[in-house]
Amino acid sequence: MRSGMIAVVGRPNVGKSSLVNALVGRKVSIVAPKPQTTRHRIQGVLHGEQGQIVFIDTPGMHLKAPRALNKFMNEAANGSLQDVDAVLFVVEAGRWTEEDEAVVEKLKHVKAPVGLAINKVDKLSDKGKLLPEMERLAALHPFEFMVPLSATKGSNLDGLLKELYARVPEGPALYPEGQITGHDLAFTISETVREKLMRALAQELPYALTVETETIEREGALLKTSAIIWVEREGQKAIIIGEDGGMLKRIGTAARRELEVLTGARVYLKLWVRVKNNWTDDPQALHRFGYQQ
Ligand SMILES: Nc1nc2c(ncn2[C@@H]2O[C@H](COP(=O)(O)OP(=O)(O)OP(=O)(O)O)[C@@H](O)[C@H]2O)c(=O)[nH]1
Ligand SMILES: [Mg+2]
């Protein structure tokens, strides 16, 4: 029996959370087409025949970090590089940016073995470009292994797992059988609502909001819960509520449906929108909304 912890790092939007979900086989971390979706370290536990791997999904490491929330996210990602058995650096096939470059710099100080996952190979129109790209990446850092794969298509995940299992030590399970994440129901509810908001709203608005689960009550097979969507300004509140409340209703429906699948319960979800001025740059507000290391 092997067991260990593996940090999954990289710049925003390369598919870290998609990969962790695919490896764990269940959705433990939210996914959206926009960068900076993940804001916390998220544990996802794989219970495999060879043992247990606890993946630490992390916020995408980013360079432009103007607000306290950005700094929190980068610190959460940086903090994952210590005290793990291995680090998996995720990049996007065919797309290399200065933010990837900055992650490589950080990896130089990592003591644990570092491997590379080249994700989104399904998007490569010319597969002949993969080999030269792998050669170029290999020259950047002494990676212990390099695996091209697709998180969303599920291709070559076995190849990656073989490499990862080889890098976790023998030891007892860290999580009980059946437990796939270290987070509680309140976190799952707020993250699910935030994912629907990230997917529905345009441009900057997803970065100005956070979701706080307010109440959770169980009545037999019914899960009754309410959550507050906090925004920075009144104008943002109006957009989220939408004409005749239509936008908020769509968000609520999408989140409720997913929560019903995740929990197996019938869900009654009530959403509120409130304003907390400048919360993304206010250390006290950040702390209150759960952004604390
Ligand atoms: N085509 C394709 N798209 C993918 C793949 N993996 C992830 N994506 C998409 O890439 C986008 C970002 O995925 P995430 O998993 O949220 O990326 P992330 O690295 O966790 O992003 P942050 O949390 O913002 O750092 C989503 O639209 C995913 O559906 C893949 O293998 N192929
Ligand atoms: Mg993510």
Kindly list the characteristics that best describe this protein.
binds magnesium ion, 2 domains, 23% strand, binds guanosine-5'-triphosphate, Rossmann fold, 3-stranded mixed β-sheet, 6-stranded mixed β-sheet, 9 strands, alpha/beta, 293 residues, GMP Synthetase, Chain A, domain 3
Describe it:
With 293 residues, the protein is α/β, with parallel strands linked by helices. It folds into 2 domains: 2-165, 3-Layer(aba) Sandwich (Rossmann fold); 185-288, GMP Synthetase, Chain A, domain 3. 33% of the residues lie in helices and 23% in strands. It contains 9 helices and 9 strands. The strands form 2 sheets. A 6-stranded mixed sheet has the order 2-3-1-4-5-6, sandwiched between helices. Strands 7-8-9 form a 3-stranded mixed sheet. Helix 6 (185-200) packs across helix 8 (246-263). The mean pLDDT is 97. Bound molecules: guanosine-5'-triphosphate (GTP) and magnesium ion. Magnesium ion binds next to helix 1.
- Residue stretches low in confidence (pLDDT < 50, at least 5 long) are none
Largest sheet: 6 strands, mixed
Domain tally? 2
| Structural shape | globular
Biggest sheet strand line-up = 2-3-1-4-5-6
Helix content: 25-40%
Structural class: alpha/beta
Radius of gyration: 20 Å
The helix/strand series, from N terminus to C terminus, equals: EHEEHEHEHEHHEEHHEH
For the termini, the CA-CA separation is 31 Å
CATH topology of the largest domain: Rossmann fold
Mean pLDDT: 97
**Total beta strands:** 9
**CATH fourth-tier homologous superfamily of the largest domain:** P-loop containing nucleotide triphosphate hydrolases
**Ligands, deduplicated:** guanosine-5'-triphosphate, magnesium ion
Strand content: 15-25%
DSSP helical segment count: 9
CATH class of the largest domain, anyone?
Alpha Beta
Instruction: Give the name of the CATH architecture of the largest domain.
Output: 3-Layer(aba) Sandwich
